[in-house]
Structure formats: structure tokens, C-alpha cells
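Please produce the structure of this protein holding glycine.
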Amino acid sequence: MILPSASLRYRSRDTEYRYRPDSELYYLSGATEPETLLVLVGGDDPRFVLFVRPRDAGAELWAGPRLGPDAATERYGADECYSVAELDEKLPGLLQEGDRLHYRLGAEERTDGFVRKALAWARGSGMRRGTGPRGLVDPGEILDELRLRKDVEEVEAIRVAARISAEGHRSGAAVIAEGVGEWIVEAAVDAGFRAAGANGPGFPTIVGSGTNACTLHYVENRDTIDDEALVLIDAGAEVAMYNGDITRTYPAAGGFSDTQRDVYRIVEAARRAAVEQVSPGVTIASVHEAAARTILEGLVGLGVLSGPMEELFSEAAYRLFFPHQTSHWLGLDVHDPGDYAKAGESRVLEPGMVFTIEPGLYFRPEACEDAAARFSGIGVRIEDDVLVTDDGCEVLTAALPTGESEVEDLVGAR
Ligand code: GLY
Ligand code: MN
Ligand code: MN
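Below is the modeled complex.
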């Protein structure tokens, strides 16, 4: 298996984004420096080989210290560690050892070149010697499954990210008021994350007031909050590479109007129903179904949808107002890898899995006719992070309340 590090990315011209190490490389090795390459050799002589940047006084003056091969061997427990300057010399030989290569073509141009050459070599000389890679497999085939089940240290890391995510939300909710810019709320959330020791937000913080809450990934955060508006904050902190992901929806006035309350109650009931469903042995699809059924019943109760319940459910009539899934895996990536279904069968939950529960209801003005008209412009999402335990689940984000009156109390609370 070959895993290159993430590339440095440029924001514009020569200005770099802050570096974010590659999740897979970090998962297997803990390595965080750019230009690192990990090679795992299987077979009779299994080895963990690392290539890292050499020490360089000039470069280190600008960008900070590098480990270099000697210190990296010690730090990461590699069997062999070389400078990346030795890639040309060492890598081709390593790639000829196995018959299958786990590598994602396109991951990195230079490594792509080595892999193509190794495959070509195996088709030629390798055939006579009986060695060399004949198959290329995505590393995710192994790593996605491993990453789906979090170990104790990972759960602890997510727990901290969830706690700090909740703190950032409190900071954001505290500045919500009529006339305040969405960007002010965003700044308060992100400052809360940083002040609590997070690397920062794991994804651009969403602060959508009024109709903006109906845009699922609204990140412009450029409008001013109206007095009657709901304010949806979807934000999560990244701490030590692991992520939290929380959404709450707050009434700017400090209290929900009757129509807002009607919608909020349905989404909160859907969140609860989904959480109650989580337990080892049940499928991730059944968690979504619990949320979707509650949303559907709520919409029928409001008179927005009508007809026989099972028919409405089987045609997913709720999707006009609840167009996304209830869950995604959570970990090193906010949308962590792992199959949700295989061969048409939904994934069965196991202890150690971590995922979000985030039902929502969005009354986009263009989708609101007749009975839905009085809800036009209302968007509500409530998102928690849950860990599957031996006998049920633990809500990792329970420190941030979801109940109506408690959410009202968070608005403007300093
Ligand atoms: N903020 C992205 C998500 O909740 O999935
Ligand atoms: Mn999410
Ligand atoms: Mn989210």
C-alpha cells in the first residue's frame, strides 16, 4: 500500500492554505508533514517504510522544523525511513515486491508515475520472474472498513471535538440578535473553537438566517439577521485531526413563533426517534427511516401533506421538505468514509461506529404552495453526533441542548 501525503494547496498565487495532513496517512502512521510517502510491504518480509522531507535549514527558517528521516523513524516507529530525495532509487524496487498495489491513481502526480512504471515493468520483465504488481486496488477497500470502527483513542478524540463544537455553538448563539450579521455569529463560533484549543472549524461554518437556512450548505454568511428569523448554525470543530459536527436552529427573537415552533417540534421529534433507534444490530437505513417517518407524520399533522401514510412513505413524499439523508459517518473526515450499504443491504451498526443524526425541514419559498405557504422560508435542522455502544448509543453532543426552551435560552446568553 502506498499513501502519499496531502499536497500543499494554494488559495491564490503563492498564498497557501493552512496545511491539512491526509486522513488515511495520519490514520496509519500519525505522520503530518507534507511530502511524506508511506509504503507498507506485505508478504514474507512485511515492512513499514516512510519517506520524509530531509532537514533543510533554509526551508525550516520559513516554514518551521522538519523531522528528517532519523527523527521520523523514532517518532513513527518505521522499519525503514528515507529522505524523499531517495524515492527514485528506492521506490521502484519496493513496488516490485507484491502482486497487488493498494494505491489511488490520481492521488499525487509523482507517485502516479512510479506506480505506472511498476505496472508496466510487471507486464514485461515481471512475468518472467513471477513478481510485480498486476492489480491496482483502492486503499479505501481496507482502510474505509477499519476507519468505520473507532478505537478508544479515536472516540476520545471525537469526544473532545464534540465538546469544543458545543462550546463554539454557545459562543455563536450568545451573539444572535436582530440586526447582527450572520458573519458576526460565524466569527463568534469560530473564535469559540480556536479559544478552546481546536485547529479551527472542520468545514466552513454555516450561519443561515431566514430563508438562507433552506440552503443546505449556505456558507456566504453575509445577511443581517431579522427579528422574526430563525438562525441555523451548522458548525464543527476539528481537534487533533478529528471532527465534531453540530447543527442547532435558534430563534433570533429569543422565542419561537407558533409556526416556527410547529416545525421545530417535528424536527426535534425526528432527531429523538432516530437516536432511540440506534443500537448494535440495527441498520443505518432504519435510523433514517425512524427520522423520515416522524417528519412525514409531522407534515401530515400540519396538513402540508395528505394521503394514506404508507403510500406517502413509499413515494418519499417528505423529500420535498427533507431532501437529505439523516446520517453520515464522522471521524478524521467530517463525512468519514465507509459504505452505507453493500449489495443492496444497509449497513448493520456495531459498537464503535460514530455518525451524525441530522434531520431537517426546509420550506423553500418556491416549494411552498397551499397548506405549506404559512411555513414559507422556515428552515430547521438539528444535528447531533452519536457513538454506537454495546447496548445502545451515546449522544456525544448532548452537552448542547436541543429542547425548545433550552435553545431559546441560549440566544443572547452571555
Ligand atoms: N455540515 C455538513 C454536514 O452536516 O454534513
Ligand atoms: Mn453533518
Ligand atoms: Mn453539520
